[in-house]
Design goal:
- It contains 12 helices and 18 strands.
- With about 475 residues, it is α/β, with parallel strands linked by helices.
- Strands 10, 11, 12, 13, 14, 15, 16, 17 and 18 form a 9-stranded antiparallel β-sheet that branches. The protein has a 7-stranded mixed β-sheet with strand order 3-2-4-5-6-7-8, sandwiched between helices. The protein has a two-stranded antiparallel ribbon with strand order 1-9.
- It binds flavin mononucleotide.
- It is an enzyme of class 5 (isomerase).
């Protein structure tokens, strides 16, 4: 069976900190580097919540129990509870040894204002698996040493008994904040009888014990480490992607593609509700995709075939749609253009994942009139105009620098700001549809599929709507 596996780059080289270095770094952050403990706690808790949300998707995982210890690790847990609430989860907090400092009591007040329940240890359900999908262990951090005292010894024991059930859907996922509670900060799960969390969110940098973590999800959080700390401790940490507050360390677990299955829940797509004209129906759905804020709702797969019928697909951007057809722009020397010159039949596919919708459109393709391409070319940003000239799309080049050189020369050539002429080998295509299908995902694979095909009725063409089996 096919499997998808991705690897975080340079996983093996990530630095692991000793307990002493970790303590020193904290001191420097909160000393010379100007951070307050509240700030670091806020960012740490946000990272934990972000990592949890990245792995344990809402819908399947909703109810979260956060067990907070008396120190900073517990504070990180309280902050994570607040963020998880705002992300849409239903957190409950078990905070048996409250710290009477303003930072902690303010966090409690914030959680109380969100009506997040605080569950006393004695009121925790006997079977945690029935009540919670995720348990966050925020009991002890890297500064802890010794043996956990009541009630934490028993709480850790309960999590240990849960974690031996194995990686089954029948028990909550266990997430540890920075250090799995009860572990030695450097030696880890020394006697092998401690907690085995499914996820570890290391903060600032992984501590030495994280080398012994064998669960499927190791993340780094605490996106605040400034360059003086990185250089002083020779830290090699993975870069955070985009605006993310967490980054995966090491290998992601492999995914069995055959097990990826969504149970779609959507409004029904009924014959009596759809527009009689498929162009109107398309525009209605397209507008809804735009309103829903989907990223590039106009991205579509274009499939062409050459004269031997050999197919090929690629993404293009829909740049116009009206009753004449669907328009995109490209290079007339590209492979798709070559296919279309031999065989004008093509298919378009738009997929709006978040709305459980796909639209298929099939028809024949012609170039758009030159003036239309001209007008569109000049509406594009200048960089895209130059890029279109520089790229002899679908041809082989010796290296990226060839393209960069061509682009640079064009920049110089048009540095006076004069109009960039559209090259003859660039322009639009329009697909005139002969078939549409609107697909709406539904529960238990009972999806809606409505197909529109043209029929001649009394000398004029009307669109005939049929329902297809999913
Ligand atoms: C989201 C997305 C949008 C794209 N839009 C276009 C486009 O509008 N026009 C285009 O020529 N290539 C576009 N591309 C690049 C094409 O997928 C493809 O690489 C290129 O057109 C060459 O294809 P060909 O060699 O089959 O002709 C897009 C790629 C992606 C991923």
């Amino acid at each position: 069976m096919a499997s998808l596996t991705s690897y975080a780059s340079a996983a093996a080289e990530v630095t692991h900190l000793s307990q002493q270095d970790a303590a020193e770094i904290d001191e420097q952050l909160m000393g010379a580097l100007g951070f307050s403990v509240d700030q670091l706690m806020e960012l740490a808790g946000l990272s934990v919540a972000a990592a949890v949300a990245e792995v344990y998707k809402l819908g399947e995982y909703t109810r979260v129990l956060i067990i907070c210890g008396p120190g900073n690790n517990g504070g990180d847990g309280l902050v994570a509870a607040r963020h998880l609430y705002h992300f849409g989860y239903r957190p409950s907090v078990c905070y048996p040894k409250r710290t009477p400092k303003p930072l902690y009591s303010s966090l409690v007040t914030q959680l109380e204002s969100l009506a997040i329940p605080f569950v006393p240890v004695e009121d925790l359900p006997g079977n945690l698996s029935e009540e919670f999908n995720i348990i966050i262990d925020a009991m002890f951090g890297f500064s802890f040493h010794g043996t956990p005292r009541p009630p934490f010894d028993d709480l850790i024991h309960r999590l240990v008994s849960l974690s031996v059930i194995g990686n089954s859907a029948k028990r909550p996922a266990i997430v540890s904040v920075d250090i799995p509670s009860g572990w030695h900060v450097e030696e880890g799960n020394a006697n092998g009888e401690g907690l085995k969390p499914d996820m570890l969110v290391s903060l600032t940098a992984p501590k030495l014990c994280a080398r012994k973590f064998t669960g499927p999800h190791h993340f780094l959080g605490g996106r605040f480490v400034p360059p003086p700390i990185l250089s002083k401790y020779g830290l090699n940490l993975p870069p955070y992607p985009g605006t993310s507050m967490c980054v995966r360390i090491g290998k992601a677990p492999s995914v069995d593609i055959s097990s990826l299955r969504e149970n779609y829940i959507s409004p029904e797509l009924l014959e009596k509700q759809v527009m009689p004209d498929p162009f109107d129906q398309f525009i209605r759905w397209f507008d809804e995709a735009v309103t829903a804020g989907l990223r590039e709702p106009n991205a579509m797969a274009l499939t062409t075939a050459n004269k031997e019928g050999k197919p090929s697909s690629r993404m293009v951007l829909l740049k116009g749609v009206d009753k004449q057809g669907f328009v995109w722009y490209t290079n007339y020397g590209s492979q798709k253009a070559h296919d279309l010159s031999e065989n004008p039949n093509a298919a378009l596919l738009l997929y709006w994942n978040e709305m459980n919708r796909q639209v298929r459109v099939e028809g024949s393709v012609q170039k758009v009139p030159e003036e239309e391409s001209e007008k569109y070319f000049h509406s594009r940003p200048r960089g895209s105009q130059l890029g279109a000239i520089a790229s002899k799309q679908s041809t082989v080049i010796a290296g990226r620098e060839v393209l960069q050189q061509a682009y640079k020369e064009l920049e110089q050539k048009y540095s006076d700001g004069s109009m960039v002429p559209k090259p003859d080998y660039w322009g639009g295509y329009r697909l005139t549809p002969k078939l549409f299908e609107f697909w709406q995902g539904q529960k238990s694979r009972l999806h809606d599929r409505l197909q529109y095909s043209p029929r001649e009725v009394d000398g004029s063409t009307v669109w005939h709507i049929e329902r297809l089996c999913p």
